[in-house]
Amino acid sequence: MSSTTAVQITNLTKKFRDTTVIKDSNMTVPKGCVYGFLGANGAGKTTIFKMLTGLLSPTSGTAMVLGLDVTKEREKVLRGIGSLIEAPVFYEHLSAAENLELHLDYMGTKGFGTGVALDMVGLAGTGKKPVGKFSLGMRQRLGIARAFIHRPQVLILDEPINGLDPMGIRDMRNLFLSLIQKHGMTILLSSHILSEIEHTADMVGVIVNGTVVCELYLDEIKGQSGIRLEDYFFNIMSGEGMNYAKANEA
Ligand SMILES: Nc1ncnc2c1ncn2[C@@H]1O[C@H](COP(=O)(O)OP(=O)(O)OP(=O)(O)O)[C@@H](O)[C@H]1O
Ligand SMILES: [Mg+2]
Any idea where the domains of the chain sit in the sequence? Predict the structure, then answer.
């Protein structure tokens, strides 16, 4: 794995009992980019993210983060990762700051500090309000803050804009840019919504029925005349796409 690669999966397969949900998938995420992981409901995005963060073990193949095998060196890998996978779980009776403090204690670092992190996600004014009284969007913002507050090198965010309003979505886009440009992070985010990926990601990986079928830089397609991004990805996601993609490469 090259030193310029943040995440690499090779021939990754995951079976639950007799059902194969991830099949022979490969993925390469260069350092310093926003990698948008696009796929329909049930395609396998969360399952792959869980293998990248050690929440699930691969049946075969490897998942490497920052040059380390996630299965073999989970503890080390987790120090370099921040993640938000599915709905975040908090101590409901504690405030946002208290929840973040607990996470920082656990990670053994001061990171950005709770005040700065809450400000970065637009939750500075929530004071002592218990997280149990937070709205869905506020919980999501706090989940994102907890993912990056310890200053990880790689951020893995599963459907990060779930529940956010349009302003929140724009704020998060700016936040991601700043985490990459000012703090040198690499961000993987998943979505089933193309427009979200289109406006946020540098690079896109598409997963169809458990297999990553293509990876490309968005600029490569945007630069080609006569192609509507929506049609391009819809074709790929619906499983007809590789022919379409190849025809347009020529
Ligand atoms: N613990 C499990 N046991 C059995 N099957 C599972 C398990 N977890 C996930 N699956 C199956 O794996 C497939 C991929 O699920 P996954 O949650 O990774 O999809 P996803 O791309 O994240 O979808 P969504 O956009 O709905 O979040 C689905 O068919 C799902 O039913
Ligand atoms: Mg999912």
Answer: 5-249
Q: Within 10 A of 155 (CB to CB), how many other CB atoms are there? A: 24
pLDDT tens digits for range 23-78: 999 999 999 999 999 999 999 999 999 999 999 999 999 999 999 999 999 999 99
Q: How confident is the model at residue 246 (pLDDT cuts 50, 70, 90)?
A: very low
**Pocket around ligand 1 at a 6 A CB cut-off:** 16, 21, 39, 41-47, 192
Q: Where are the beta strands (DSSP E) in 41-151?
A: 60-65, 68-69, 81-84
* Portion of the chain with pLDDT greater than 70, in percent: 95
Q: How far apart are CA 188 and CA 35, in angstroms?
A: 5
Q: Which atom of ligand 1 is nearest to the CA of 49?
A: 18
20, 47, 51, 189: residue to mutate for ligand 1 pocket, most atoms within 8 A of CB: 47
Whole-prediction pTM value? Answer: 0.92
Q: Give the Å distance between the CA of 43 and the centre of ligand 1.
A: 7
What residues sit around ligand 2, an ion, with C-beta below 5 angstroms?
A: 45-46
User: Domain 5-249: what homologous superfamily?
Assistant: P-loop containing nucleotide triphosphate hydrolases (3.40.50.300)
* Residue 37 burial class via C-beta count within 10 angstroms: exposed 0-12, middle 13-18, buried 19 and up: buried
Question: What strand order describes the sheet that includes 5-16?
Answer: 19-30, 5-16, 60-65, 68-69
Residue whose Cα lies nearest atom 6 of ligand 1: it is 16
